Amino acid sequence: MGSVLELTLGIMTAMGGFVDVSELVFAAQAGSRFLFALIWVFALGTIGIMVFGEMAGRVAAVSKQPVFNLMRQRLGLQVGLLTLVGAVIVNGITCAAEIGGLAIVLQLLLGWPYRLLAVLVTTMLIATIWILPFKGIERSVGLLGLFMIAFLAVTAAIDVPWKDVALGLIPSTPRAGSSMDLLSYAYFVVAIISAVIFPYEVYFYSSGGIEEGWSLKDLPINRVTTIVGFALGSLLAISLLVNAAVLFSAKQIDPQLPATVALQAAIPFGKIGLLLALTGMFFAFAGAAIETCLSNAYCIAQFFGWEWGRYRGKAEAPRFTVAWLATFGIALAIVLTGIGPLDLVEYAVVSSILVLPLTYFPLLLVASDEKYMGRYANGIFANVMGWLFFAIITVAAVAALPLFFITAGGKL
Description:
The protein is an all-alpha fold. It has one domain (33-159, 183-406): Amino acid/polyamine transporter I (Up-down Bundle), CATH 1.20.1740. The protein has 16 helices and no strands. It has helices spanning 2-16, 21-34, 39-63, 67-110, 114-131, 134-144, 150-157, 162-167, 179-196, 199-211, 219-247, 258-304, 318-336, 341-367, 370-373, 380-406. The longest helix has 47 residues, at 258-304. It is globular, with a radius of gyration of 20 Å.
């Protein structure tokens, strides 16, 4: 019974914490602008995060080594340090975007000044990590993020052309449009892949396995959690796209802010729907902010060989504690400059795609190394899928910056 409960909670947590501010905004914009044509990208990215997430959890359970412990070993000091710097920047910007999104949600509910709410939100997040143990953080914030199911209810309540949705699972390009439209479409493909396979998810997931003392007996739970949990989370992201295509596209509404996305639930369900949507968004963003902040501390501590982990007391891992506190402080400072959450999201997504190949290359090497992993090393299927998605993210990384500048972040 305990294993079943652990598995159920793990799946629910993965689903509740899957959609952060970047995925929410890009999913809604993709539906509003390109209707159902980008659903296949979410499906593709979800398979990718399943593949890499399962590997990261398996390596953590077998070797007791999280992803960033492997960076320096497999990439060497210089390349490993470059990856660390990139990861820290991406995590910091993403954390700032999540704090900004949280402040916007509360501003809609309370009407208080944006910067004041950003300070209050950051204080709340610090208190959450300071007081709760790792599993308490994961379960409480992750499960409360399940209020995002309100968006699935919207999909069920509106008139959806399901045939077009099914066709959206087949890779295609927009049927009509200028060359700039095609370039913007390509930018959204790259951005969605980055948003779905954000590296912090793997940093946090593998480190979480160590935090919870995973061993070989947890390998089945790891596999089912990464497959079912991420699949359900992706279904939620696709529902955001479908809702936007049906409700926003014809009215030419561009959902650039979380507040606009929340209106999806208000259209069929009124104030109750809006409140449920905002609640789900609040806890989903809070979970992502905590994950990115802790991921930064994990990356830094693991790379330099410091004591780390929430399972250790604060006195046992003081530099780890300083690292996550500093991440929140820097993220808040970025928000207080007045940079909009949407701009932060775009910077985070583009920066993330550049770091992805360096993140997953050492993971692939270790997961496929029979000397290191023994009989738990990648099989033929896992290796084929791993290297296939490594090739995909490498191509996306090469294309990311040119597409970002040519299309002004998909705005042209």
